Each structure stands twice: as C-alpha cells, then as structure tokens.
Amino acid sequence: MTRPRVGMTVMKARGDLGHLGTHLDEIERLGADTAELPFYDLDLVVGGKLVAGRMRVLEQACSGRSLAYTVHGPHPANFFDETFRSARHFEVMQACLEAAAAVGAVHYVVHTGFCRKTSAEALGDAYLRQRDWLHRAGDLARPLGIMVCVENVFDWEWGKLDTASPSRLAREIAAIGHGNVCATLDFGHALLESGFRGGDLLAEVTALAPVARHLHIHDNFGRPDDIYMYTDGERLAYGHGDLHLPVGWGSVPWDDILARCTFPAAPVLNIELDLRYWHAAQECVAATRALAERMRHG
Q: What is the predicted pLDDT for the residue at 188?
C-alpha cells in the first residue's frame, strides 16, 4: 500500500480487554484504516512477561477485521534513564513487540528519551545509550516485520526536562541508522515544545517529516500547562497543555505544515483524540483524511 492510512488510538480500551472488540467496532464504523492499541494500559505484560490468557483475548478481539494495527508502547520506556534500568526497559519492550507481532502490528511507537536538566556531557552520553538500545530494538523488530517509531515528546514539566526536539530526533534516527527504526512525528508535541522554548516550528517538523512513517494527529494551542487549573474544562477554556483536541480546534498550522513537509510513502496518520472530545471523532477522521490526501511524499 502506497497511500497514507488514517488511524485512531483505541482510547476507550483501558484494562478490561472484554470491551476491546466493541471499541474496535466503533473505529471501523468511523472509517479508519488502522487502530492504535494502547499497550501502556491493556495489562498484557506483568513483570516483563506476557500473560497468555490476556494475549488470547487480545488476538480474538483483533482478528477478522478490515483494520491494520499499530501499537503504542508503555510511556516509561526511556533509554536516557539510569543505566541499571536499561535492561528492564528493554525487557518490557521485547515483550510488547512480541505481543504486537501476534496481532500483525506494523508500527510500534516508543517515546524518545527524557531526563532531568543536566550537563551537555551527561546528555551526550544519554543519547549514545539510546542509540545503542534503539538499534537493538530494531534488531528485535526486523524479523517481526515491525517498524520501531520513535516519538518526539516535550518538556511537560516546563523547564525541568531535556528531550530531543524534532530536528534533533531526526539526527538521532540518522545516527541509529537501522532500517527498522524511524520516527513518529507528533505535531501537537512539537507545537508545545516550540511554544514553550521558542524556535521555528515549521523548520522543526520539516526536519523530522522525511523519516516519520508514523504521525500522531491532534491539536492544541502550544501553551504550557503552567498555572493552576481545577478541571480539564478550564484547561480547554484557557487552551493550556497537551489537550489532544480534534484537528482544527487548536492552532497547529496544518496548511503550512503540508506546504513545507515531505513525508515517506504510506505513512500512518494516527488520531490521538481525548475521550472528552470523542463526540467529534467522525469530523476528526474526515479532517485527517483531508490532510492525508494533500500530503507530499518523497
């Protein structure tokens, strides 16, 4: 398949896999091509090992559908972390990759590394560690037919964390140099990072787009969640934080991005829509499909 595919994260599937099939039915009815399985909250892995009974339920729910699958791995996976935990992160990733392969998933999303603000020397060492471990992940993924898609994140503690900008992540993907390791370009995260730190959003996403086979689609206003808020409705009113809004509700400059960026062939545009806005899921799928039709490919 050479055309872009539109997908949706199964946001409603939390813990109780008994309802996963119903949620996948809904994503099929919305007209998505792919579904992203939230392995960070499906209780498939216990202490680094797959649970056979849970896997049977997962496979049954996923089988016989028109959907292809992608997977979002656990958020704590972090190869900038202390070295004594690297093997533990990798053990969980290996189990999740095996589970992803069991349902025929084509992409496995993992966040790029993050750490407390530190010296340039320590940060450089963290990048070297991450390159090594992600190359190993690519070696695991290759025989499974899975692409490991490394996602740009942002400093969600607003001044306390180091993590790769999209352009730095592009350089890291090149340095890893593995055919099964590419990028996930999260446009909402990129806007939050540039909104907080400054910099040229379009230059950043343009740098990462050519190696981003996986795209996370959602909207926000690029404003840090840095003042007291009592409810999520208040965050929406102020436009603060990682809101995961429908396309067009925020200030991601979609037209400018499409005019500037060149993407790989057949990317997955996966919608990450907060449950609060699920009432707008159909319009979000339509808007994302329209984005996909306008994309340029290298």
A: 98
